[in-house]
Amino acid sequence: MPRPHPDHSADPARTGPPRHHCAEPRPGTPSPLTDRFGRIHTDLRVSLTDRCNLRCTYCMPAEGLDWLPRADVLTDDEVVRLVRIGTRRLGITEVRLTGGEPLLRRGLPGLVARIAALDPAPALSLTTNGIGLARSAAALREAGLSRVNVSLDTLRPERFAALTRRDRITDVLAGLAAARDAGLAPVKVNAVPVRGVNDDEIAELAAFAAEHGYRMRFIESMPLDAQGAWDRDRMVTAAEILERLGDRFALVPVERRDNAPAEEWRIAGTTAVVGVIASVTRPFCGGCDRVRLTADGQLRNCLFATEESDLRALLRDGADDAAVEAAWRTSVAGKGPGHTINTPEFRRPDRPMSAIGG
Ligand code: SAM
Ligand code: SF4
Predict the structure, then answer these.
(1) Cα atoms in the 13 Å half-sphere on the side-chain side of 119
(2) Does an H or E element contain 298, and which?
(3) Whose CA is nearest to atom 4 of ligand 1?
(4) What is the distance between the terminal CA atoms of the chain, rounded to a whole angstrom?
(5) Among the atoms of ligand 1, which is closest to the Cα of residue 224?
(6) What domains lie within the chain, and their CATH numbers?
(7) d(CA 232, CA 221)
(8) What is 40-60 written as a DSSP string?
(9) Which of 101, 102, 240, 260 is positioned for an S-S bond with 48, CB 3.0–4.6 A?
């Protein structure tokens, strides 16, 4: 399905009356998954587990969380069925597998292969902390995975151990190299800078990524940690990130792709690209095309949603595809205009980032 043109009338922050899409469903052409602001949703994030083998301090507490009981987690058959409904009936064209740590999901290459074999097949990517990727990158590529984002917040082993509470930086670096060698391109590196923790490494991380052929992206920290300890003063803003990058590199703006959350710059004189995802200080809710499925089968129309739609219950109660499609459309139709982090009304969602799927 063609992606929509950027249309600022679809930006709830700027609009007047919402646009309505009332295209007739034609056989083989799903009618778009729209909300009341006219945003079309083509990108599905699927969390495969809420468990993790790291304990990043900005994400979860040292003791971990109360993990979902296994019986609550969607089976492979259920995940494949929901993704199939998404691609065939709802116009989903991109699927990102995430978690928790998705590489902890048993039989992941098999699940990837089943999703990649769907008709129509989505563009399929993965967000991972990279532990175990050295072993699995080639199999995942072979199974049909296209791209990978690997989280790496620091290049200093001791700092990595303190930040993630696990001494595993060697595994992550090996995972990155394996992903590149397997052709999971472009390999993106995600870092969340936190003041006083790793904000002095912003330029270093960008230089590292440029040197190894990875695409660096910095993400503003969000109030989605499980401990509720997020502190605006410790968030490093996009403006500060750019200032740190600008101290070391000459940056040339790259034209933004439709609906892309990252603003990107090329490091002058190189082919290296650096991105900044400014979810807090420059929200991009007006162009949001994402919908999320948690590991226990709850559909969320926004990272910050306070309500969910229980697709797992529908599946397990024997609902047919049309009923699941209808529930999915109802959920998206009710999506709000955008997050309210910067307002006094902001209420944290009950689920932390690791249980939603970042
Ligand atoms: N475990 C995998 C990983 O770390 O890449 C996938 C799940 S993790 C929740 C997905 C992304 O969310 C990671 O890039 C991580 O850095 C980011 N993240 C986690 N907590 C965050 C927070 N409070 N604010 C912003 N990003 C966060
Ligand atoms: Fe695990 Fe990813 Fe959260 Fe780190 S950010 S604790 S790797 S889920």
Answers:
(1) 1
(2) strand 298-300
(3) 129
(4) 25
(5) 23
(6) 12-356 (3.20.20.70)
(7) 9
(8) B--EEEEE--S--S---TTTS
(9) 102
Which tokens in the block code for residue 67?
């993990």
Q: Ligand 2 pocket check: which of 56, 96, 104, 166 to mutate, most ligand atoms within 8 Å of Cβ? A: 56
Pocket of ligand 1 (CB under 6 A): 52, 58-59, 98-99, 101, 127-129, 151, 190, 192, 219, 221-222, 224-225, 353-354, 358
Here the tokens at position 290 are 């994402």
Contacts 24+ apart (CB under 8 A), 242-249: 242/276, 244/199, 244/202, 244/203, 245/202, 245/203, 245/206, 245/274, 247/203, 248/203, 248/206, 248/207, 249/203, 249/206, 249/274
Counts of helices then strands in the chain (DSSP H, E): 10, 12
For residue 146, which of 104, 189, 94 has the smallest C-alpha distance?
A: 94
Q: Which residue's C-alpha comes closest to atom 20 of ligand 1?
A: 59
Among the ranges given (67-76, 160-169, 269-278, 345-354), the one the predictor scored with the smallest mean pLDDT: 345-354
Give the phi and the psi of residue 355 in degrees, each rounded to 5.
-100, -5
Structure confidence by residue, pLDDT tens digits, 222-281: 999 999 999 999 999 999 999 999 999 999 999 887 778 899 999 999 999 999 999 999
pTM across the whole model: 0.92
* Nearest residue (CA) to ligand 1, atom 2: 128
SS3 assignment, position 300: strand
CB proximity list for 326: less than 8 A, separation 6 or greater: none
